[in-house]
Write a structure and sequence with these properties.
Strand order of the largest sheet: 11-10-9-8-7-16
Oligomer: single chain
Number of domains: 2
Strand content: 15-25%
Length: 498
Amino acid sequence: MLIRSHISLLIIFGGIISGCATLTDPNLNPKELRSFKVSSAFCQSWSKRLDGVVQKSGARDFGASMVKDYPYLRVNRFLASFSSAVQGNTQLYADWIASMIELDQEGRRIEIKNLNEAGIALLGGDRSQVQKITNACSAYSKSNLLVQSNNELKNLLTRAIVPDDYSRMRRVLGLYSFLKIPFVQGIEAWHVDARRTFERYTRSNVDDWSKVRYEINIKNRLTSSDVSHFLSNRDSLGQLQLQPDAVSQIFSTYAPVFTIEDSGEFDRVGMVGFTNEQQVQVDIAQPTVYTHLAYTRFEGKTLPQLVYIAWFPDRPKNGVSDLLGGRLDGIIWRVTLDDDGMPLLFDSIHPCGCYHMFFPTERLRAIAAPTKYTEWAFSPKRLTQRPEAVRLNITVQTKTHYLANVAVDMEGAIDDVQSYSLKPYNELRSIKTAQGFVNLFGLNGIVKGSERGERFLLWPSGIRSPGAMRQWGRHATAFVGRRHFDDVDLLDKYYWRR
């Protein structure tokens, strides 16, 4: 039986590379495969086989979107926004293609790393060779794409899109058109409550709970001039061209202080992992904040965004009727930098995409909402002080982990002070476990086990599993209308420059 299974694997793999790989023996064991010849046919077949095994093994990464008919390209909303500008601009087009190739390479490295041994066996039994073949096809695809004809380019431009995270079918079946009014009323009630909370915490120190202050240890923070110098190194799309150490310095410079009301382990920040039973856990003994570099566009310019994600073990339930509590919770804090290295805008959501708040600096002036029934930019507080050479302190409420205040850090008396470390967000996409490497973000980019009871009430909004924790690029942030945390037009839509 084992012999027949082994022969079947060889036949499958041999079929993939027939006519494209250079083999000295047609019965060569896949583990001994060391030479191959790339071609369009070979790379198309290889991508189909790889994608099929990845899908079957549950190792698919749902961050960037695959580009239909272009198996070695993936696209995010930032890159998709350039599709109307690259035609006729050689350098812009080259950087655009290179960026989509890089996104795909990143996704495929993670997927190959997360494949179990059975999946790797289906691809030849050698993980390093699987990666080598994939890299070779990626490079081959890039060279071909850079010399595309106009007709081929037009075809690519129509496919380099990111589908939104709203289901039209769910909205139709859920009578969304009628439910918009109660959705708006619920959002307005939250806005009123959040404003009152911010006013209360701004007026005086709220001492109802003990607090833990989480901060990063850094002696020499960059000045805005230093950051501005770094920001000058860009490609034609406006993406930073920096060494990892320089990017880390920028993240350390603007890393916020988290002042968290602490009434239990559920309020403590930690490093994300899995138990032996493959359940998500947060190690609060290792306070960690994950970082991700993103981009937006404002007034025709690309602006870098520093994204910080802190995770809590859970949001405890108040009772059996609590629809918002559940396993795993968190805070996402984002800093949008201006060209001179100064913050332009801060905003925040929970990893479910919920509770989107904007904190504009004095450089921005808000645009009024066009109608009452539009979910617009909600700003409970404007930052009147220029956050230069200072840190911002984010106050987080116990249990709910709602933001309660954002202010320039004053280092007041706190019960406990802990240091947190910064780790790349991509580590969450491939976490080591006893059974191999596993992506925190499972099917459709949603963390398994983080589902909330609210999904049974809010599904007519069109959002898949409202309340569940989800992957970057999958954060729908509006129940009325359509909006994503990584939309590139948020600043142009909501603000004018003063």
